Amino acid sequence: MITYELPTDQVMLEAFLARDISYDGIFVTGVQTTGIFCRPTCAAKKPRPEHLRFFGTAHEALLSGFRPCKRCRPMEPSGTAPEWLRPLLAQIEADPGRRWTDQDVREAGLSPPRVRRWFNAASRHDVPRIWARPAPRCSPGACEGAAHA
Hints:
The chain is 29% helix and 9% strand. The chain has 149 residues and is an alpha+beta fold.
């Protein structure tokens, strides 16, 4: 069994407050007042430091009576797509050449801004190229010969 020593409580507190992604997978933080445990990168409102407990694994937090945060989902592998997005991702994988519009996403029962936010946060890049760009707005004759995206 591989064991490792956790960083000091002060280091973990600073990483948690800064939402430092380099500590994701190193520890989880339990909030005693809510009974919830989170990843160090959780975007939820930060509790007072005296209400925090640090654990090396999610399993330790569960055994101590904490439940996983619904926002950062510490029980799932980092970067895993949320349940609400998985049907759309399956459609994208089934037809990778398709260009998706906001209307297509709405017809799939999702909010285009919410989908964009997830892609931006998950990839740290712009929305993927599967998203169709809107056609340029030109007056009649003004766009003749211009390249369209």
